[in-house]
Amino acid sequence: MPLTREQLAQRAARELRDGFIVNLGIGIPTLVANYIPAGMEVWLQSENGLLGMGPFPREPEIDPDLINAGKQTVTALPGASFFSSPTSFAMIRGGHIDLCILGAMEISQHGDIANWMIPGKLVKGMGGAMDLVAGVERVVVVMEHCNKKGESKVLPECTLPLTGRRCVDLLITDLCTMEMDHSKGMFRLVELAPGVTAEDVKARTRAEYLADRVPMAMSV
Length: 220
Known about the structure:
Layout lengths: L4 H9 L7 E4 L18 E4 L3 E4 L22 E7 L2 H9 L5 E4 L3 E3 L4 E2 L14 H7 L2 E6 L10 E2 L14 E4 L2 E6 L4 E7 L5 H6 L12 E2 L3
Parallel strand pairs: 1-2, 1-5, 5-8, 6-9, 8-10, 12-13
Antiparallel strand pairs: 2-3, 3-4, 6-7, 10-11, 11-12
């Protein structure tokens, strides 16, 4: 069965490492904050000026003035710091973020990402995604494999305006995990969600990808 949003967040949390500074994108990636392994110290950064985000607040903890870049209320851990947006983007552009976990509307087989706008629809702005994919050491994308019409979002080429080219290192979907082989410029199928077969992935993927290894079962 395809993974739920919470299971996708749990799988993405496996990419965290002790001491990492991590930026979480809007949507499914924000849920990763709830699944940081016990005993692991991870500093979550939000481009609106917060380092040290905690999990989402319970009702008594809600502070309407404490929000992330997606305008969701968040908590701040002991030792958290607040700063200006220019300082935040200096951290991102200066290569001080170890990992970012983003959502996407489309991903190409070469690791291009489109996640900031659909032409003709109202957009508030591109946010920090373009800076993140250019300035962060490792880029992980978490998304549903197909759109609401059942069409693949993993394509030979993106059809929507690009956020970045050849920048995605790992793609986690509700069907599988694909890792970029940078030497060959293509994704490789490395994990399958429980109950999903390699044939299922092939049938729902328009992009070409490497399938030269037996994929492991995805653990969440």
